[in-house]
Specification:
0% strand; mainly alpha; Hypothetical protein af1432
Length: 97
C-alpha cells in the first residue's frame, strides 16, 4: 500500500485543507474540541474519503490514534493489527506536537 499525497497546488488538496481548517475552527469555537477531540480522526477520515486519490489513506487516518496496547481509539486495535501507515502517522503526530 502506498500513501498518496496530492500536489499542494491541486484543487483536491486545497479543498481538503479548507474542510479540515473549517472543522477545527468550528469545533474549537463550539467547545466540542478540535485536534484533541476523540472524533477528529473519524472526521478527518470522512473528509479524506471524498477525495478519490486519498481514499486508500482513510484507514490510516482513522486508526492513527490506536495504541499498541489497545487503549487507543476508535477500534481498540492492538499491536500488528494497527496498519503500519497509521502507526507512522501516530509517530509523526507525536513528534510534531
Amino acid at each position: 500500500m502506498s500513501i498518496v499525497i496530492p500536489d499542494k497546488d491541486s484543487k483536491y488538496y486545497k479543498s481538503l485543507e479548507d474542510s479540515y481548517n473549517h472543522y477545527i475552527v468550528v469545533n474549537a469555537l463550539s467547545g466540542r474540541g478540535g485536534h484533541s477531540s476523540p472524533t477528529h480522526a473519524a472526521e478527518g477520515a470522512r473528509m479524506v474519503g471524498y477525495v478519490n486519490e486519498l481514499v486508500p489513506s482513510v484507514p490510516l487516518i482513522l486508526n492513527s490514534h490506536e495504541w499498541y496496547d489497545g487503549m487507543g481509539y476508535p477500534d481498540g486495535l492492538t499491536g500488528e493489527d494497527i496498519p503500519l501507515g497509521a502507526r507512522i502517522i501516530a509517530v509523526a503526530d507525536a513528534y510534531d506536537n
